[in-house]
Design goal:
The chain has two domains: 2-98, 2-Layer Sandwich (Alpha-Beta Plaits), CATH 3.30.70.580; 104-200, Alpha-Beta Plaits (2-Layer Sandwich), CATH 3.30.70. It has four helices and eleven strands; from the N terminus they run βαββαββαβββββαβ. The protein has helices at residues 18-31, 75-83, 120-126, 179-184; strands at 2-9, 48-50, 59-68, 90-96, 107-115, 132-136, 141-145, 151-158, 161-171, 174-175, 191-200. Strands 1, 2, 3, 4, 5, 8, 9, 10 and 11 form a nine-stranded mixed beta sheet that branches. It has a two-stranded antiparallel ribbon with strand order 6-7. The chain is elongated. 23% of the residues are buried.
Length: 208
C-alpha cells in the first residue's frame, strides 16, 4: 500500500536539517506500530521518499512524504497513529493515496518576509533586472542570472515588512533555493524569513 503524507514544518523545528527530518520520520514510522515496508539488505530502513528537500531555517505549509505499508490500512488510522509521534511543529495535513510520482514536482511557491528600510516598490525595482548570483552545486560554483527562473512575483507590505511571493523551479535537476534571492538583496535588507507555501506539478496544480 502506497501512502502519501502531507504535513507542515512550522516553528522552531525549522532549525533541523533535512537529514535530521529524515531521521525523525524514520523513528515516527517505526514507533507508530504500522506495518511499514522496509528495504532489503544488511541495513534495512523504511522505504520512503520526500518531494523536495527543505533548507534549514525555512518553514513550510505543504511538505510531501511517501512511504509504503505491507497491508491495506485506513488513512484515518494511519494519520492517527503517526500524529501521536509527531514532535511540535510537524503537523499532518492529511494522508492519502499518491496520485502522481513524487519526482514529478515541478515548481514551488514561497513567501519571503523581508525586514528592511526599503519599500516594496524599491525591493521590486532591485529585482527588476539581472539577478546574478554565485550558484553552488556539489561539484562547482558558477555565476548565473536567475531572473528568468523567478516567476509569478507579488510584492506588498504588511506589519512594517516587505512581503514577496514567488514561484521557483523545484525539479531534481533544476532546483532554485529562495535563499539566493535573499543573498542577492543582502546589502539592502536586514533579515529574510522564508516559508514554502505549496508544491506544484508541471501543469501548475498542487502535488497530490
Amino acid at each position: 500500500m502506497e501512502v502519501r503524507l502531507f504535513f507542515k514544518k512550522i516553528g522552531n523545528i525549522r532549525y533541523i536539517s533535512h537529514l535530521d527530518l529524515q531521521r525523525a520520520m524514520i523513528r515516527i514510522l517505526i514507533r507508530s506500530g504500522l506495518d511499514i515496508t522496509f528495504s532489503e539488505g544488511f541495513n534495512p530502513h523504511p522505504r520512503m521518499a520526500f518531494a523536495v528537500p527543505l533548507s534549514i531555517y525555512q518553514e513550510s505549509e505543504y511538505e510531501i512524504f511517501d512511504f509504503k505499508l505491507n497491508q491495506e490500512t485506513p488513512f484515518d488510522e494511519i494519520k492517527d497513529k503517526l500524529s501521536k509521534g509527531m514532535p511540535q511543529g510537524l503537523d499532518i495535513i492529511r494522508v492519502a493515496e499518491p496520485k502522481s510520482k513524487i519526482s514529478s514536482c515541478y515548481t514551488a511557491r514561497y513567501r519571503l518576509t523581508i525586514t528592511t528600510a526599503k519599500s516594496a516598490d524599491e525591493i521590486k525595482e532591485l529585482l527588476s533586472g539581472d539577478i546574478t548570483i554565485l550558484k553552488k552545486t556539489k561539484t562547482k560554483e558558477l555565476l548565473c542570472d536567475i531572473a528568468t527562473q523567478i516567476t509569478n512575483r507579488i510584492f506588498y507590505e504588511h506589519d512594517g515588512k516587505v512581503i514577496m511571493e514567488v514561484t521557483l523551479p523545484a525539479e531534481n535537476n533544476n532546483y532554485l533555493n529562495p535563499n539566493y534571492i535573499a543573498e542577492f538583496l543582502k546589502d539592502s535588507i536586514d533579515y529574510c524569513f522564508i516559508r514554502r507555501l505549496c508544491l506544484y506539478d508541471i501543469n501548475g496544480k498542487p502535488m497530490e
